[in-house]
Amino acid sequence: MNRHLLSAGDLTRDDAELVLRTAEELRSLADRPIKKLPALRGRTVVNLFFEDSTRTRISFEAAAKRLSADVINFAAKGSSLSKGESLKDTALTLEAMGADAIVVRHSASGAPHRLAHTGWTRSSVINAGDGTHEHPTQALLDAFTMWRHLAPGGAGKSGGGLDGRRIAVVGDVLHSRVARSNALLLRTLGAEVTLVAPPTLLPVGVEGWDVETSYDLDSVLPKADAVMMLRVQRERMSDAYFPTVREYSRRYGLDSRRMGLLQEHALVMHPGPMVRGMEITADVADSSRSVIVEQVTNGVAVRMAVLYLLLAGSSEPTLTTSDPGASE
Length: 328
Ligand code: NCD
Prior knowledge:
By secondary structure, the protein is an alpha/beta fold. The protein has 11 helices and 9 strands. It has a 5-stranded parallel β-sheet, covered by helices on one side. A 4-stranded parallel β-sheet has the order 2-1-3-4, sandwiched between helices. N-carbamoyl-L-aspartate binds near residues 55, 135, 138, 177 and 233.
């Protein structure tokens, strides 16, 4: 693995499978009374969030703490960033405090690359979402969730993986870093990806993504092994991309009628946050097909795997629970 995780496209198939196998081992920790390993004791992980986040920030924090790292949470609001301090000065400050990993979310596409490649810091940089560009750990947790349900022999077993599985990603692809990272990673893992959206919400240049596209959700659902619904990211929209919410839901929302078109084994997924009643109805989100809550649980295991592999070495972990007395 590289020292940084900036793009899902940087992961080879071997890298990605190593993360998934490691996550599978680490996930069993969630069921133990003491959810902690000593692997990153003495290491410092900084969560540097310039954009709002609930699950991603908490997930990285839980992951780092379960590996016994020290965690510093740094949100733009309430810090000197709101006084106009630059990314560079922030990075130099974190470097001076001895950060080993910086988990960064930023509204500007490319900010994590900048941090990793300018020499401002020697830390490992993990992209936790940059603008409309990428969100690689979200793609890894999504792939991990699919692997656990869809891969022959289960997650972590070599052979098969997601080869030939059909994944539909539906909604606001244009503004979605989740869609881009998923498309890259799922192709690396051998899955077939179909992006479903109104023409206005597909990015220019999508022809180069090595995926199929469709404007017709009903025709895609019967073939899908998993359908991933995306939120319409209105905070990133400066124009009207569809006539009305009602019209959007009618054409691209997942309701119980449409869920009925899915195969028996097909999964319903969503990275969160959901807008119930818009891209997904409440009954579908809460149905037995939905693995949306499991995605959140899996997110912690996947982020533990990423932190472990970037900071503690590239081998797979041995699962010895830490001495409870040793953890703070
Ligand atoms: C997404 C994000 O922030 O990119 N959510 C997440 O990280 N789980 C998608 C979204 O905001 O809709």
